[in-house]
Request: fold
Amino acid sequence: MYRQGDVLIVPITDEAVPSHAVDAPSEARDARGRLVLALGEVTGHAHAVTGPGRLVCEPGPFGPMLLHLPEGGRVVHEEHAAIPLTKGWYRVVRQREYLPGAVRIVAD
Amino acid sequence: MQYVDKWRAVAAATGPADRAAAEEGVCLAYRTAGLAEPERIVWADSPRAAVAVVRSLDDPGRSVRDEVRTRAWAEERRRIHDELGPTGWAELWSLTGARLWDTTRALAERIRTGVVDAPAVQDTADTADTSDVTARETEIRLTLLDAVLGQHDAAWLCAFDGRSDRLQGLATVAAHAGWWWPYEKSVVICERPAELHRDEAGRLDRGDGPALEFPDGFALYAWRGMPVPADFLGGLTSLTPQRIRSEENAELRRVMLEYYGYDRYLAESEAQPVHRDETGILWRIALDDDEDVAMVEVVNSTPEPDGSHRTYWLRVPPTTRTAKEGVAWTFGLQAEAYEPVRQT
Reply:
Protein backbone atom coordinates (compact mmCIF):
# COMPACT_ATOMS: atom_id res chain seq x y z
CA MET A 1 0.00 0.00 0.00
CA TYR A 2 1.04 3.56 -0.66
CA ARG A 3 0.41 6.76 1.20
CA GLN A 4 0.50 10.28 -0.15
CA GLY A 5 -0.38 12.76 2.57
CA ASP A 6 -3.91 12.11 3.73
CA VAL A 7 -4.67 9.54 1.04
CA LEU A 8 -3.95 5.81 1.33
CA ILE A 9 -3.85 3.70 -1.84
CA VAL A 10 -4.24 -0.03 -1.18
CA PRO A 11 -3.75 -2.61 -3.95
CA ILE A 12 -6.51 -5.20 -4.25
CA THR A 13 -6.54 -8.36 -6.33
CA ASP A 14 -8.64 -8.49 -9.49
CA GLU A 15 -10.71 -11.28 -7.93
CA ALA A 16 -11.61 -9.09 -4.95
CA VAL A 17 -13.05 -6.31 -7.10
CA PRO A 18 -16.85 -6.48 -7.04
CA SER A 19 -18.23 -7.15 -10.51
CA HIS A 20 -20.59 -4.18 -10.37
CA ALA A 21 -17.61 -1.91 -9.70
CA VAL A 22 -15.90 -3.22 -12.85
CA ASP A 23 -18.92 -2.14 -14.87
CA ALA A 24 -19.71 1.03 -12.91
CA PRO A 25 -19.34 4.40 -14.65
CA SER A 26 -16.03 6.18 -14.17
CA GLU A 27 -15.57 9.51 -12.48
CA ALA A 28 -14.84 12.26 -14.98
CA ARG A 29 -11.31 13.55 -15.33
CA ASP A 30 -10.53 17.11 -14.31
CA ALA A 31 -9.74 19.95 -16.73
CA ARG A 32 -6.12 18.74 -16.83
CA GLY A 33 -7.20 15.23 -17.78
CA ARG A 34 -6.38 13.70 -14.38
CA LEU A 35 -8.28 11.31 -12.13
CA VAL A 36 -8.75 13.23 -8.89
CA LEU A 37 -8.58 11.06 -5.76
CA ALA A 38 -9.00 13.97 -3.34
CA LEU A 39 -9.27 17.69 -3.92
CA GLY A 40 -8.41 20.52 -1.56
CA GLU A 41 -11.46 22.76 -1.65
CA VAL A 42 -9.57 25.98 -1.13
CA THR A 43 -6.09 25.57 -2.63
CA GLY A 44 -7.32 23.35 -5.44
CA HIS A 45 -4.33 21.09 -4.74
CA ALA A 46 -5.24 17.54 -5.63
CA HIS A 47 -4.07 13.98 -5.15
CA ALA A 48 -4.45 12.92 -8.77
CA VAL A 49 -3.47 10.17 -11.16
CA THR A 50 -2.17 10.84 -14.62
CA GLY A 51 -2.31 8.34 -17.48
CA PRO A 52 -4.90 5.81 -18.57
CA GLY A 53 -7.25 4.34 -16.00
CA ARG A 54 -10.56 4.67 -14.24
CA LEU A 55 -11.82 5.88 -10.89
CA VAL A 56 -15.06 4.41 -9.56
CA CYS A 57 -17.06 5.63 -6.59
CA GLU A 58 -17.93 2.53 -4.62
CA PRO A 59 -19.47 3.14 -1.24
CA GLY A 60 -19.11 0.07 0.93
CA PRO A 61 -16.35 -2.20 2.20
CA PHE A 62 -14.07 -1.55 -0.78
CA GLY A 63 -14.88 2.12 -1.18
CA PRO A 64 -15.34 4.95 -1.09
CA MET A 65 -13.26 4.84 -4.27
CA LEU A 66 -11.69 2.19 -6.45
CA LEU A 67 -8.92 2.99 -8.91
CA HIS A 68 -8.12 0.82 -11.92
CA LEU A 69 -4.84 1.36 -13.71
CA PRO A 70 -4.56 -1.13 -16.60
CA GLU A 71 -1.10 0.15 -17.50
CA GLY A 72 0.04 1.51 -14.16
CA GLY A 73 0.32 5.23 -13.41
CA ARG A 74 1.57 7.90 -11.07
CA VAL A 75 -0.20 9.67 -8.24
CA VAL A 76 0.87 13.29 -8.00
CA HIS A 77 0.22 16.22 -5.65
CA GLU A 78 1.46 19.80 -5.51
CA GLU A 79 3.06 19.32 -2.08
CA HIS A 80 4.02 15.65 -2.03
CA ALA A 81 6.44 13.55 -4.04
CA ALA A 82 4.84 11.49 -6.82
CA ILE A 83 4.33 7.76 -6.27
CA PRO A 84 4.50 5.31 -9.18
CA LEU A 85 1.80 2.63 -9.13
CA THR A 86 1.97 -0.73 -10.91
CA LYS A 87 -0.97 -1.87 -13.02
CA GLY A 88 -4.04 -3.24 -11.24
CA TRP A 89 -6.88 -2.25 -8.93
CA TYR A 90 -6.56 -0.09 -5.83
CA ARG A 91 -8.75 1.00 -2.99
CA VAL A 92 -8.44 4.71 -2.18
CA VAL A 93 -8.99 5.80 1.43
CA ARG A 94 -9.07 9.37 2.72
CA GLN A 95 -7.59 9.92 6.17
CA ARG A 96 -9.99 10.70 9.02
CA GLU A 97 -9.68 12.02 12.52
CA TYR A 98 -11.47 11.07 15.67
CA LEU A 99 -13.91 13.48 17.27
CA PRO A 100 -15.85 12.48 20.36
CA GLY A 101 -19.17 11.30 18.97
CA ALA A 102 -18.17 11.81 15.34
CA VAL A 103 -15.43 11.39 12.78
CA ARG A 104 -14.20 14.00 10.34
CA ILE A 105 -11.92 13.81 7.35
CA VAL A 106 -8.47 15.31 7.49
CA ALA A 107 -7.73 18.29 5.30
CA ASP A 108 -4.01 18.37 4.61
CA MET B 1 -15.53 19.30 -15.00
CA GLN B 2 -15.16 22.86 -16.30
CA TYR B 3 -18.67 23.51 -15.00
CA VAL B 4 -17.74 22.24 -11.54
CA ASP B 5 -14.77 24.58 -11.27
CA LYS B 6 -16.83 27.52 -12.53
CA TRP B 7 -19.68 26.90 -10.08
CA ARG B 8 -17.32 26.10 -7.23
CA ALA B 9 -15.94 29.59 -7.74
CA VAL B 10 -19.46 31.08 -7.89
CA ALA B 11 -20.44 29.43 -4.61
CA ALA B 12 -17.34 30.84 -2.89
CA ALA B 13 -17.37 34.27 -4.54
CA THR B 14 -17.02 37.32 -2.30
CA GLY B 15 -17.04 41.04 -2.91
CA PRO B 16 -19.59 43.52 -4.21
CA ALA B 17 -22.37 42.19 -6.42
CA ASP B 18 -22.56 43.23 -10.06
CA ARG B 19 -25.92 44.84 -9.46
CA ALA B 20 -26.74 45.65 -13.07
CA ALA B 21 -25.97 42.11 -14.23
CA ALA B 22 -27.87 40.57 -11.33
CA GLU B 23 -30.92 42.76 -11.98
CA GLU B 24 -30.83 41.76 -15.64
CA GLY B 25 -30.79 38.13 -14.51
CA VAL B 26 -33.77 38.74 -12.23
CA CYS B 27 -35.78 40.30 -15.05
CA LEU B 28 -34.83 37.50 -17.43
CA ALA B 29 -35.91 34.90 -14.86
CA TYR B 30 -39.29 36.65 -14.52
CA ARG B 31 -39.79 36.88 -18.28
CA THR B 32 -38.79 33.22 -18.71
CA ALA B 33 -41.40 32.28 -16.11
CA GLY B 34 -44.03 34.23 -18.07
CA LEU B 35 -44.24 36.96 -15.45
CA ALA B 36 -44.12 40.72 -15.75
CA GLU B 37 -40.76 42.13 -14.60
CA PRO B 38 -40.79 43.26 -10.95
CA GLU B 39 -41.66 46.91 -10.35
CA ARG B 40 -38.78 47.39 -7.98
CA ILE B 41 -35.62 45.68 -6.88
CA VAL B 42 -34.32 46.44 -3.39
CA TRP B 43 -30.76 45.62 -2.41
CA ALA B 44 -29.76 44.46 1.07
CA ASP B 45 -26.29 44.04 2.50
CA SER B 46 -26.80 40.59 4.01
CA PRO B 47 -29.40 37.83 4.29
CA ARG B 48 -30.15 39.16 7.77
CA ALA B 49 -30.84 42.64 6.41
CA ALA B 50 -32.78 41.14 3.51
CA VAL B 51 -35.12 39.31 5.87
CA ALA B 52 -35.84 42.60 7.63
CA VAL B 53 -36.46 44.33 4.29
CA VAL B 54 -38.76 41.54 3.10
CA ARG B 55 -40.75 41.80 6.30
CA SER B 56 -41.09 45.56 5.91
CA LEU B 57 -42.19 45.54 2.25
CA ASP B 58 -45.40 47.33 1.51
CA ASP B 59 -47.54 45.27 -0.86
CA PRO B 60 -44.85 43.17 -2.58
CA GLY B 61 -47.44 40.81 -4.04
CA ARG B 62 -47.35 37.04 -3.65
CA SER B 63 -44.13 35.04 -3.65
CA VAL B 64 -43.31 33.85 -7.15
CA ARG B 65 -40.45 31.61 -6.08
CA ASP B 66 -42.29 28.57 -7.39
CA GLU B 67 -42.70 29.94 -10.91
CA VAL B 68 -39.30 31.60 -11.10
CA ARG B 69 -37.23 28.85 -9.60
CA THR B 70 -38.86 25.68 -8.32
CA ARG B 71 -41.11 24.84 -11.25
CA ALA B 72 -38.47 25.75 -13.81
CA TRP B 73 -35.93 23.54 -12.06
CA ALA B 74 -38.32 20.63 -11.62
CA GLU B 75 -39.31 20.68 -15.27
CA GLU B 76 -35.74 20.98 -16.51
CA ARG B 77 -34.67 18.22 -14.16
CA ARG B 78 -37.44 15.98 -15.48
CA ARG B 79 -36.54 16.80 -19.07
CA ILE B 80 -32.85 16.01 -18.58
CA HIS B 81 -33.73 12.92 -16.54
CA ASP B 82 -35.94 11.64 -19.38
CA GLU B 83 -33.24 12.43 -21.89
CA LEU B 84 -30.43 10.69 -20.01
CA GLY B 85 -32.36 7.98 -18.14
CA PRO B 86 -32.04 7.33 -14.41
CA THR B 87 -28.44 6.10 -14.64
CA GLY B 88 -27.40 8.95 -16.89
CA TRP B 89 -29.00 11.49 -14.59
CA ALA B 90 -27.33 9.93 -11.54
CA GLU B 91 -24.01 10.03 -13.34
CA LEU B 92 -24.47 13.65 -14.40
CA TRP B 93 -25.37 14.63 -10.84
CA SER B 94 -22.39 12.77 -9.37
CA LEU B 95 -20.04 14.55 -11.78
CA THR B 96 -21.52 18.01 -11.22
CA GLY B 97 -23.87 19.05 -8.43
CA ALA B 98 -22.91 16.30 -6.00
CA ARG B 99 -19.40 17.73 -5.83
CA LEU B 100 -20.64 21.08 -4.60
CA TRP B 101 -23.67 19.97 -2.65
CA ASP B 102 -22.26 19.27 0.80
CA THR B 103 -20.20 22.42 1.20
CA THR B 104 -22.75 24.85 -0.25
CA ARG B 105 -25.68 23.25 1.57
CA ALA B 106 -23.77 23.38 4.86
CA LEU B 107 -22.86 27.03 4.28
CA ALA B 108 -26.44 28.01 3.41
CA GLU B 109 -27.70 26.18 6.49
CA ARG B 110 -25.19 28.01 8.69
CA ILE B 111 -26.34 31.33 7.24
CA ARG B 112 -29.98 30.43 7.91
CA THR B 113 -29.18 29.54 11.50
CA GLY B 114 -27.17 32.73 11.87
CA VAL B 115 -30.04 34.85 10.57
CA VAL B 116 -32.54 33.20 12.90
CA ASP B 117 -30.22 33.73 15.85
CA ALA B 118 -29.31 37.31 14.92
CA PRO B 119 -30.78 39.81 17.38
CA ALA B 120 -31.22 42.55 14.78
CA VAL B 121 -33.78 40.54 12.86
CA GLN B 122 -35.55 39.42 15.98
CA ASP B 123 -35.87 43.03 17.10
CA THR B 124 -37.59 44.02 13.89
CA ALA B 125 -39.99 41.09 13.98
CA ASP B 126 -43.35 42.62 14.67
CA THR B 127 -45.12 39.77 16.37
CA ALA B 128 -48.06 40.51 18.63
CA ASP B 129 -46.30 39.02 21.60
CA THR B 130 -42.66 40.04 21.56
CA SER B 131 -41.83 37.63 24.33
CA ASP B 132 -42.75 34.75 22.05
CA VAL B 133 -39.32 33.97 20.68
CA THR B 134 -40.47 30.76 19.05
CA ALA B 135 -43.13 32.53 17.00
CA ARG B 136 -40.60 35.14 15.84
CA GLU B 137 -38.14 32.46 14.89
CA THR B 138 -40.82 30.65 12.94
CA GLU B 139 -41.64 33.80 11.00
CA ILE B 140 -38.00 34.39 10.17
CA ARG B 141 -37.59 30.78 9.11
CA LEU B 142 -40.63 31.05 6.86
CA THR B 143 -39.21 34.20 5.28
CA LEU B 144 -35.94 32.36 4.72
CA LEU B 145 -37.81 29.57 2.99
CA ASP B 146 -38.96 32.07 0.36
CA ALA B 147 -35.37 32.80 -0.66
CA VAL B 148 -33.68 31.77 -3.87
CA LEU B 149 -30.12 31.09 -2.81
CA GLY B 150 -28.29 32.83 -5.66
CA GLN B 151 -24.61 31.85 -5.53
CA HIS B 152 -25.45 29.06 -3.07
CA ASP B 153 -27.67 27.35 -5.64
CA ALA B 154 -24.41 26.53 -7.43
CA ALA B 155 -24.78 22.76 -7.11
CA TRP B 156 -28.07 22.60 -9.02
CA LEU B 157 -27.11 25.23 -11.53
CA CYS B 158 -23.88 23.34 -12.19
CA ALA B 159 -25.83 20.19 -13.06
CA PHE B 160 -28.03 22.14 -15.48
CA ASP B 161 -25.26 24.25 -17.01
CA GLY B 162 -24.91 23.85 -20.75
CA ARG B 163 -28.19 21.93 -20.96
CA SER B 164 -30.86 24.52 -20.41
CA ASP B 165 -31.38 28.09 -21.59
CA ARG B 166 -34.46 28.29 -19.46
CA LEU B 167 -32.42 28.71 -16.28
CA GLN B 168 -30.18 31.43 -17.68
CA GLY B 169 -31.80 34.14 -15.58
CA LEU B 170 -31.27 32.21 -12.35
CA ALA B 171 -27.72 31.37 -13.37
CA THR B 172 -26.97 35.03 -14.10
CA VAL B 173 -28.23 36.18 -10.72
CA ALA B 174 -26.23 33.42 -9.02
CA ALA B 175 -23.05 34.45 -10.82
CA HIS B 176 -23.39 38.06 -9.68
CA ALA B 177 -25.20 38.22 -6.32
CA GLY B 178 -26.30 36.45 -3.18
CA TRP B 179 -29.69 35.32 -1.96
CA TRP B 180 -32.86 36.88 -3.35
CA TRP B 181 -36.56 36.95 -2.67
CA PRO B 182 -38.85 37.11 -5.69
CA TYR B 183 -42.33 38.54 -5.18
CA GLU B 184 -44.85 39.52 -7.78
CA LYS B 185 -44.07 43.25 -7.62
CA SER B 186 -40.83 43.48 -5.64
CA VAL B 187 -37.56 41.65 -5.42
CA VAL B 188 -35.20 41.83 -2.48
CA ILE B 189 -31.68 40.83 -3.39
CA CYS B 190 -28.65 40.47 -1.29
CA GLU B 191 -24.96 41.28 -1.56
CA ARG B 192 -22.38 38.52 -1.43
CA PRO B 193 -20.14 38.07 1.62
CA ALA B 194 -17.22 40.44 1.97
CA GLU B 195 -15.20 37.75 3.74
CA LEU B 196 -15.29 34.00 3.41
CA HIS B 197 -12.62 31.87 5.02
CA ARG B 198 -12.70 28.11 4.76
CA ASP B 199 -10.34 25.24 5.42
CA GLU B 200 -9.24 22.73 2.82
CA ALA B 201 -12.33 20.62 3.44
CA GLY B 202 -14.51 23.65 2.60
CA ARG B 203 -15.70 24.28 6.16
CA LEU B 204 -15.94 27.76 7.64
CA ASP B 205 -12.69 28.32 9.47
CA ARG B 206 -10.91 31.34 10.89
CA GLY B 207 -9.05 31.88 14.11
CA ASP B 208 -8.69 35.68 14.17
CA GLY B 209 -12.01 37.05 12.97
CA PRO B 210 -15.30 36.15 11.34
CA ALA B 211 -15.13 33.22 8.93
CA LEU B 212 -18.04 34.73 7.00
CA GLU B 213 -18.94 38.40 7.00
CA PHE B 214 -21.36 40.44 4.92
CA PRO B 215 -20.85 44.15 4.18
CA ASP B 216 -23.25 45.22 6.95
CA GLY B 217 -21.33 43.29 9.59
CA PHE B 218 -23.58 40.24 9.77
CA ALA B 219 -20.99 37.59 10.54
CA LEU B 220 -20.47 33.97 11.47
CA TYR B 221 -17.55 32.70 13.48
CA ALA B 222 -16.26 29.18 13.13
CA TRP B 223 -13.22 27.07 13.69
CA ARG B 224 -12.84 24.19 11.24
CA GLY B 225 -16.55 24.26 10.64
CA MET B 226 -17.56 24.40 14.28
CA PRO B 227 -19.62 27.49 15.18
CA VAL B 228 -18.03 29.46 17.99
CA PRO B 229 -19.23 32.61 19.76
CA ALA B 230 -17.77 35.86 18.38
CA ASP B 231 -16.04 36.75 21.65
CA PHE B 232 -14.55 33.28 21.95
CA LEU B 233 -11.90 33.83 19.30
CA GLY B 234 -10.56 36.92 21.03
CA GLY B 235 -9.76 34.82 24.07
CA LEU B 236 -7.78 32.29 22.10
CA THR B 237 -4.64 34.42 21.99
CA SER B 238 -4.38 34.51 25.77
CA LEU B 239 -5.09 30.86 26.46
CA THR B 240 -3.41 28.96 29.25
CA PRO B 241 -3.47 25.23 29.95
CA GLN B 242 -5.51 26.04 33.08
CA ARG B 243 -8.09 27.93 31.04
CA ILE B 244 -8.33 25.02 28.61
CA ARG B 245 -8.75 22.51 31.42
CA SER B 246 -11.46 24.60 33.04
CA GLU B 247 -13.58 24.99 29.88
CA GLU B 248 -16.68 22.89 30.41
CA ASN B 249 -17.89 22.80 26.81
CA ALA B 250 -16.04 19.88 25.25
CA GLU B 251 -16.28 21.26 21.71
CA LEU B 252 -14.96 24.67 22.66
CA ARG B 253 -12.19 22.96 24.61
CA ARG B 254 -11.26 21.04 21.47
CA VAL B 255 -11.05 24.31 19.54
CA MET B 256 -8.87 25.77 22.31
CA LEU B 257 -6.57 22.75 22.17
CA GLU B 258 -6.26 22.99 18.41
CA TYR B 259 -5.58 26.71 18.53
CA TYR B 260 -3.16 26.48 21.42
CA GLY B 261 -1.36 23.63 19.71
CA TYR B 262 -1.42 20.08 20.94
CA ASP B 263 2.36 20.04 21.02
CA ARG B 264 2.53 23.09 23.26
CA TYR B 265 -0.23 21.78 25.46
CA LEU B 266 1.45 18.39 25.69
CA ALA B 267 4.70 20.07 26.74
CA GLU B 268 3.14 22.43 29.25
CA SER B 269 0.84 19.89 30.78
CA GLU B 270 3.77 17.51 31.05
CA ALA B 271 1.94 14.81 29.19
CA GLN B 272 3.95 11.68 28.60
CA PRO B 273 4.20 9.76 25.35
CA VAL B 274 2.35 6.50 25.75
CA HIS B 275 3.91 4.61 22.86
CA ARG B 276 6.39 5.14 20.09
CA ASP B 277 7.00 3.13 16.91
CA GLU B 278 7.97 3.60 13.27
CA THR B 279 4.69 5.37 12.45
CA GLY B 280 4.91 8.04 15.14
CA ILE B 281 4.25 8.76 18.81
CA LEU B 282 1.04 8.19 20.75
CA TRP B 283 0.19 10.80 23.39
CA ARG B 284 -2.55 10.84 25.95
CA ILE B 285 -4.03 13.76 27.88
CA ALA B 286 -6.40 13.02 30.73
CA LEU B 287 -9.26 15.51 31.07
CA ASP B 288 -11.56 15.86 34.04
CA ASP B 289 -15.10 14.58 33.43
CA ASP B 290 -14.34 13.73 29.82
CA GLU B 291 -12.75 10.97 27.80
CA ASP B 292 -8.99 11.08 27.34
CA VAL B 293 -7.57 12.88 24.34
CA ALA B 294 -5.44 10.37 22.43
CA MET B 295 -3.25 11.83 19.72
CA VAL B 296 -0.78 10.39 17.27
CA GLU B 297 2.13 12.60 16.41
CA VAL B 298 3.34 11.88 12.89
CA VAL B 299 5.95 13.45 10.67
CA ASN B 300 5.18 14.38 7.07
CA SER B 301 7.29 12.24 4.77
CA THR B 302 7.80 14.94 2.17
CA PRO B 303 10.12 17.69 3.42
CA GLU B 304 8.97 21.30 3.38
CA PRO B 305 10.76 23.66 0.94
CA ASP B 306 13.23 24.58 3.72
CA GLY B 307 14.13 20.92 4.23
CA SER B 308 12.31 20.54 7.54
CA HIS B 309 9.60 17.95 8.10
CA ARG B 310 6.20 19.11 9.27
CA THR B 311 4.95 17.38 12.38
CA TYR B 312 1.24 17.05 12.85
CA TRP B 313 -1.20 15.57 15.29
CA LEU B 314 -4.28 13.52 14.62
CA ARG B 315 -6.80 12.73 17.28
CA VAL B 316 -7.64 9.02 17.49
CA PRO B 317 -10.08 7.02 19.63
CA PRO B 318 -9.18 6.98 23.34
CA THR B 319 -8.96 3.18 23.24
CA THR B 320 -5.90 3.38 20.97
CA ARG B 321 -2.89 1.54 22.48
CA THR B 322 -0.08 2.07 19.96
CA ALA B 323 0.96 4.80 17.53
CA LYS B 324 0.61 2.41 14.61
CA GLU B 325 -2.87 1.39 15.73
CA GLY B 326 -3.77 5.09 15.78
CA VAL B 327 -2.41 5.86 12.32
CA ALA B 328 -4.05 2.70 10.92
CA TRP B 329 -7.36 3.80 12.45
CA THR B 330 -7.21 7.11 10.59
CA PHE B 331 -7.41 5.06 7.39
CA GLY B 332 -10.03 2.63 8.69
CA LEU B 333 -7.55 -0.21 9.10
CA GLN B 334 -6.38 -2.56 11.87
CA ALA B 335 -2.77 -2.01 12.97
CA GLU B 336 -1.57 -5.27 11.40
CA ALA B 337 -3.11 -4.34 8.03
CA TYR B 338 -1.33 -0.96 7.84
CA GLU B 339 1.94 -1.49 5.95
CA PRO B 340 2.69 1.32 3.51
CA VAL B 341 5.64 0.43 1.28
CA ARG B 342 6.04 4.03 0.21
CA GLN B 343 4.85 7.31 1.68
CA THR B 344 5.33 10.88 0.59
In short: DSSP finds one helix and eleven strands in chain A. The radius of gyration of chain A is 14 Å. Chain A touches chain B at residues 1-5, 8, 25, 27-31, 40-43, 57, 77, 79-83, 93, 95-100, 104-108 (CB under 8 Å). Chain A has one domain: 2-105.
